[in-house]
Design a protein that fits this description.
The chain has 140 residues and is α+β, with helices and mostly antiparallel strands. The protein has a single domain, classed as 2-Layer Sandwich (Alpha-Beta Plaits). 40% of the residues lie in helices and 20% in strands. It contains 7 helices and 4 strands. Strands 2-3-1-4 form a 4-stranded antiparallel β-sheet. It is globular and about 40 Å long. 36% of the residues are buried. Bound molecules: 2'-deoxyadenosine-5'-diphosphate and magnesium ion. 2'-deoxyadenosine-5'-diphosphate (DAT) binds next to loops. Its EC number is 2.7.4.6. This is Nucleoside diphosphate kinase. Its cofactor is Mg(2+). InterPro entries: NDK-like_dom, NDK-like_dom_sf, Nucleoside_diP_kinase, Nucleoside_diP_kinase_AS. It holds the Pfam family NDK.
């Protein structure tokens, strides 16, 4: 089998807009289970580790500022091929072109800001998932 864990974040825009439940509903409807769910505030330290791959890019500063603008729902999901599966549920990074049926395609839009406020984060590989779960849930 190929049961995986992935780190999902409902970003501050999703929490603010009251979409946490809708996003968790889609995850559970897909058949993935919730191994951890915690509403919390990110910190500059956590975000520096989480987004290390993007340091130096033009959207990095706005991204960190956005992620500090309100609480996030940090979630660990579990299921067969759930890393790729959640990326598919989330849709493309840019909500304008994210396919209908996806979280970003159905619920997100481009707000014309320096950073895409696209509702969710999902780990993009097994290595990223292990690293990110270690950052957000060191006890797991
Ligand atoms: P994803 O969240 O789809 O994995 P990513 O890891 O490439 O995308 O980027 C992390 C976040 O940074 C993304 O969710 C939104 C923001 N971002 C990425 N590329 C961007 C761009 N070209 N313009 C504005 N924001 C961007
Ligand atoms: Mg990414």
């Amino acid at each position: 089998t190929d049961v995986q864990r992935s780190l999902v974040l409902v970003k501050p825009d999703g929490v603010r807009r009251g979409l946490s439940g809708e996003i968790l509903r889609r995850i559970e409807a897909k058949g993935y289970t919730l191994a951890a769910v915690e509403l919390r505030s990110a910190t500059p330290e956590i975000l520096a580790a989480h987004y290390a791959e993007h340091e130096g890019k033009p959207f990095y500063g706005p991204l960190v500022e956005f992620m500090l603008s309100g609480p996030v729902l940090a979630v660990v999901i579990e299921g067969q091929r759930c890393i790729e599966g959640f990326r598919s549920l989330a849709g493309a990074t840019d909500p304008t072109v994210a396919a209908p049926g996806t979280i970003r395609g159905d619920l997100g839009r481009d707000w014309g800001l320096a950073v895409q406020q696209n509702l969710v984060h999902g780990s993009d590989s097994e290595e990223s998932a292990a690293r990110e779960i270690g950052i957000w849930f060191p006890a797991l």
